[in-house]
Design goal:
Length: about 600
């Protein structure tokens, strides 16, 4: 999951390439590099470590030129070293190339190229692509690229430049995203539109198997046989301020606080008062077809998978449809029997997660309708699904997903309402749900007032080594999500469980050094969870409770209490997750972790 930026045009490339990497650094940050061309000289600058190392190098050794490429790396082959950093050089300074993806047959190709005398300087699979293009080069760079790509097995999103073609920026895509930005006498190439905001709002997405040839004045897209491809131009309506910190210390905190507005954007235009249901513009499946649905598969990875787990409760309660939730990485290889009236809904923030894309394609191969719930307009999963719903959450930069998660859960709620009103929900029931949904953003605003109390709680526990998260029913997936947030940004080991499950083994973990976070708002299972708290307390385990304002029974059983506003059970997941997002955030800060770029992680996992 690397970040790629390319530029050809009227301006000096380096500032644009570096700013683009800054916007994409969340995609991977083991090393960074760039290459520009001035005259017929390639200027290559690359460094292991964070982007600031490259910026420092470029300030000492500028890289001039109005044509260039850059890359921020999440290592897959070879450690994070200067030599393994991209760009990589092909042949005898014939070209510079950056790559996002994994080439599975790189070892054999490397052996063949070394036998021909090509000298390798790195351990990466990417350098094989660079030399392979040089191997095929006979004066037509695009043809050499086309022939080299036909030898590759695996995935790539790549960009390259050559001193032999001083006005040409070439890109190619198979399995890793690449988007063209259309400017005035300048063109851009990037792994995702975040890097283009502020430069252009007109983008064209490459599809698998396509190449692009860009000059300052032109853009051409070709298929594998070099036949021209007609592509549509998408408008990205994100503004520069969407990708700036705007006074927050971290993107994660900014995005936690953006949730009321993000949820309002998700709701906008999707509440149909006349018919007491939800309204969508892009399902692309007829009501008749959707009425026949008798089973739903929800699939995703990580936090998106947790949203699917909430969706299971939502669909079963509001629309009475059986649901199964699948890890995309498992579903893609499982060969699950799928009946005729099943649909698959892929849940994803980035729209580029390799496992989720593969699960979607597996469902399409089996001929069942597919929908996507996605945040990035025009992303691969959004384009390949039969229909879908965009989150409209705005760009999510922090690696730990927050606003995308709550917006995913809200979209699932809207879909459950829509399906429910096709079946057994009455107009008055639908109208009640609509009114409750309209109050949600303000309830979230009220919930954010727990930030300071949560920060104080974090100060008590930030040195522990283990955490437990427990919840029941709608809040069991939130226990999992809260544990994931804690793991991924504070590096503390954390486990989420259904609260009743503790008795079946995990309670052996409880001691005075292992705090348990209980999700225990007022609900149909409130008394059951209170009993579970007693079980933990009896064994000396510290308890942090997330509960509804005014629940006195909880305060007497917990060491620390965080309160959230009262709300119907089906809306509690969106409220209860917010203190857990903030708890993980404050714990990570106190532990000196990099909140927005946690170790070993990347924002968009485009490799399997
Ligand atoms: C979320 O906090 C994680 N960074 C990660 O689990 C993420 O949810 C997962 O990789 C799926 O990404 P997607 O939503 O873009 O498909």
């Amino acid at each position: 999951m690397c970040g790629i930026v390319g530029y050809v045009g009227r301006r000096e490339a380096t500032p644009i390439l570096l700013e683009g990497l800054r916007r994409l650094e969340y995609r991977g940050y083991d090393s960074a590099g760039l290459a520009t061309l001035s005259g017929n000289t390639l200027h290559v600058r690359k460094r292991a470590g964070r982007l600031r190392e490259l910026i420092r190098l470029v300030s000492e050794r500028p890289a001039p030129g109005t044509l260039g490429i850059s890359h921020t790396r999440w290592a897959t082959h070879g450690g994070a070293t200067d030599l393994n950093a991209h760009p990589h050089i092909g042949g005898n300074n014939l070209l510079a190339l950056v790559h996002n993806g994994v080439i599975e047959n790189y070892a054999l190709l490397r052996t063949q190229l070394e036998a021909e005398g090509f000298i390798f300087r790195s351990q990466t699979d990417t350098e094989v692509i660079a030399h392979l293009i040089a191997h095929y080069y006979e004066g037509d760079l695009l043809e050499a690229v086309r022939r080299a790509l036909s030898c590759l097995k695996g995935t790539y999103g790549l960009a390259l430049i050559s001193p032999q073609h001083p006005n040409l920026l070439i890109g190619a895509r198979f399995g890793s995203p690449l988007v063209i930005g259309l400017g005035e006498n300048e063109m851009f190439l990037a792994s995702d539109p975040n890097a283009l905001i502020g430069y252009t709002q007109r983008v064209v997405y490459l599809n698998d198997g396509q190449l692009c040839a860009l000059t300052a004045e032109s853009w051409d897209i070709l298929d594998r046989d070099r036949a021209p491809v007609q592509a549509s131009i998408h408008a990205i309506d994100w503004e520069l301020e969407d990708v700036e910190l705007n006074g927050f210390d971290h993107y994660m905190l900014k995005e936690i606080y953006e949730q009321p507005e993000a949820l309002e954007n998700t709701l906008r235009g999707r509440l149909d008062d006349t018919n007491a249901t939800a309204h969508f513009g892009g399902l692309n499946l007829s009501p008749r077809r959707l009425r026949q649905v008798d089973r739903i598969i929800l699939t995703g990875c990580g936090t998106s998978y947790h949203a699917g787990l909430v969706g299971e409760y939502l669909f079963e309660e509001l629309s009475r449809i059986p649901v199964e939730v699948e890890y995309a990485s498992e579903f893609r290889y499982r060969n699950a029997p799928i009946e005729r009236h099943t649909i698959l809904i892929a849940i994803t923030q980035s729209g580029e997660t390799a496992d989720t894309l593969a699960a979607l394609r597996e469902a399409k191969r089996k001929g069942i309708p597919t929908l996507s719930i996605c945040n990035v307009v025009g992303s691969t999963i959004a384009r390949e699904a039969d229909g879908g719903v965009y989150l409209r959450a705005g760009p999510e930069i922090g690696v730990a997903s927050t606003k995308a998660f709550t917006c995913q859960v809200l979209v699932l709620t809207l879909l459950a309402l829509y399906f429910g009103r096709m079946r057994h929900l009455s107009a008055s029931q639908g109208a009640r749900i609509i009114e409750e949904l309209r109050q949600l953003p303000d309830l979230v605003r009220q919930t954010l007032s727990c930030d300071e109390p949560v920060r104080q709680i974090a100060a008590k526990y930030y040195q522990v080594q283990n955490f437990l998260y427990l919840g029941r029913q709608y809040l069991y997936p939130i226990a999992l999500e809260g544990a994931l947030k804690m793991k991924e940004i504070s590096y503390i080991h954390a486990e989420g469980y259904p609260a009743a499950e503790m008795k079946h083994g995990p309670i052996a973990l409880v001691d005075e050094n292992t705090p348990t976070v209980f999700l225990v708002p007022r609900s149909s299972v409130f008394d059951k969870v209170i009993s579970n708290m007693e079980e933990i307390r009896a064994r000396g385990g510290p308890i942090i409770a997330v509960t509804t304002q005014g629940c006195e029974e909880v305060a007497s059983r917990a060491d620390d209490v965080i309160t959230i506003p009262d709300a119907p059970e089906y809306l509690q997941p969106i409220l209860a997750v917010i203190p857990l997002q903030l708890l993980a955030y404050h714990m990570a800060l106190l532990r000196g972790c990099d909140v927005d770029k946690p170790r070993n992680l990347a924002k968009s996992v485009t490799v399997e």
